[in-house]
Amino acid sequence: MRILVVLAILGAALASNSAGAGDWPRAVAPVVPAADGYVAIPEAAVPPDRAASYRAIFDATQGAAKPSQLVPAINMVGSELNALAAAGVPLAHAQFVVVFHGAAMSGLLDDAHYRLRFGVPNPNLAVLNQLSSGSRAVRLRPKRGGGQGRPKGARTTG
């Protein structure tokens, strides 16, 4: 009997939680469509400031869970640019650096080398091109050292 009561309470909580999910606006990805989108939170305590400068260093250490997915750090940079743009922050106010090492370096491979290694096209290339095009201040840096140099076919910027 106790288990049924717990399950009923849990079910009611989940149902009420999912009922509110329809109230949220749709996620938008105005700058990097392949990356996660941004959902504006109504009355957020600290919304993005259009006058502020945003600087970050992303430490890319993990490869994608599947070869057809984005490297997590590439997705994160894209989603941050989406959030800033959706909030009306000029992209000139964003200066990001992504440092790649370990398994994440495979995301920098050109398509031919990525296909040889994983058997699928590199999904990161389109996002990397979007991140480094125009006036966006995103720098890609493979880490050198520790016996692990830049993989053949890898790209860098700035």
Summarize the structure.
The chain has 158 residues and is of the alpha/beta class.
Describe this structure in words.
With 158 residues, the protein is α/β, with parallel strands linked by helices. The chain has a domain at 54-142. Helix content is 32%, strand content 13%. The protein is built from 4 helices and 3 strands. It has a 3-stranded parallel beta sheet, covered by helices on one side. Strand 1, helix 2 and strand 2 (94-100) form a beta-alpha-beta unit. Helix 2 (72-86) packs across helix 4 (124-132). The model has no long low-confidence stretch (mean pLDDT 82).
Give the key terms.
4 helices, globular, 158 residues, alpha/beta, three-stranded parallel beta sheet
* Average pLDDT for all residues: 82
Q: In this structure, how is the largest beta sheet organized?
A: 3 strands, parallel
The rough form would be described as globular
How many alpha or pi helices?
A: 4
How much of the sequence is in beta strands?
5-15%
Strand ordering within the main sheet: 1-2-3
Order of helical and strand elements: HEHEHHE
Total number of beta strands = 3
The residue fraction in helices comes out at 25-40%
Structural class of the secondary elements? alpha/beta
- Unreliable spans: none
Cα distance spanning the termini: 65 Å
Spatial extent as radius of gyration: 20 Å
